[in-house]
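We close this part of the discussion by returning to an individual protein. In the encoding step, the backbone of a single protein was reduced to a row of integers, each denoting a local shape. The sequence in question and its structure tokens are set out directly beneath this paragraph.
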Amino acid sequence: MAKSSLKLKKSELKEFLDEKAALYESPKFIGTDPIQIPHQFTKKEDIEIIGFLVATIAWGNRKSIINNGNKLIELQGNAPYDFIKNHSSEDLKTLQNFVHRTFNGTDLITFITSLKNIYTHHKGLEYAFSIHASNSGMQPAISEFKKLFFEIPHLNRTQKHVSDPIKNSAAKRINMFLRWMVRPALAGVDFGIWQRITPAQLSCPLDVHSGRVARQLGLLKRSQNDAKAVEELDQYLRVLDPLDPVKYDFALFGLSAFEKDLF
């Protein structure tokens, strides 16, 4: 397909993106994606806990993300929910040497401690994200979740590992995690295990790759990949599919990763 395909009418653009979203929302791509880590589990709490932790470290080299995701499973005795609920102070010491880029063992211990607080006192991750969700999107809810997450004692440095859209972050990794949990499992990629949030409320995980393709396609004008850009992209994608706008994440990612000759 020639680059002239980028200059599509709105009706043609929807057809093009629907086709690409369906193509790339496929289990055959899981082998190269961090989502393969939570796919090792079947219990809801295990999936959402390891999914949240893996999404947190999902930046940089994909092979390193996946390797460290598997290491997180090993460090939690292959049972994330049981580890969160029942770990001892001695168990936490075994996490101290974990490192993924700037996310270190101290950060991981804080995350594990906070997750225990969330499951013990705040009804779990799904409830914690859903209580401030609105029909206009998840960005305020993500910001409120961050406040709750860090209500336990913590080092200030660890706060950077949970993004805040109110501070103009695109919150790419959290939006990706929410997509994993909320969108239906019909295609065998996302999990659809959360019922308190609907796909219509989700935002596309925006990064340098999806942003570049979105701009080429005329979906996004803002040059920075920040919260304002997420809001702009949301508005366009929710016109294309009001009930499931974030399915187009598959199209934008797939076009960037596998059809670079177009972009």
Q: What stands out?
A: The mean pLDDT is 94. Residues 70 and 185 are 22 Å apart (CA to CA). The first strand starts at residue 99 and ends at 100.
